[in-house]
Predict the structure.
Amino acid sequence: MENNPYSSPVSDVFGTSSITDAAQVSEGVVSQLRRTKGWVQFLSVISFLGAAWMVLMGIAMLVGSSAISRVQPQGSPFPIGPLYTTMGFFYIGLAVAYLYPGIKLWKYGSRIGQLTRDRALFTLEAALNEQRAFWKYAGIMTLVMIGLMVAIFVGAVIFSATQATRGV
């Protein structure tokens, strides 16, 4: 398309497909993506299985917390039941956090499969968008984990300092 400032404007009034919609993706690109599809979906399934396992463990901790609360003596200096309840809900919440990357990876693998059939540029764009969303989530979660590690470290230092000043 030439860039002529004096030409009349062009508009797709009827919404017909543009030239990029009909453009085909090269065999080399499709081949490289096809070779990664199995690994992408494998990691997606591992993510789903990990989330399911964490839900089961969270439920087990919730059930166990009520059993422990009944067995543990009253006035215990460290009640374990509430700790298990908190950990159970934490595990279930963590399982939800594991689902999103699994879903994005599965969609990415599915888009690769669709790309091998239609070789359309818009399918490649959709696949790359799913991959982008996965890596964005991975980056955000990495920053959150770094922040949590720093906060835990600072908290541990403050706790240790206050315990040392008390002479404990």
User: Anything to note?
Assistant: The chain has a mean pLDDT of 89.
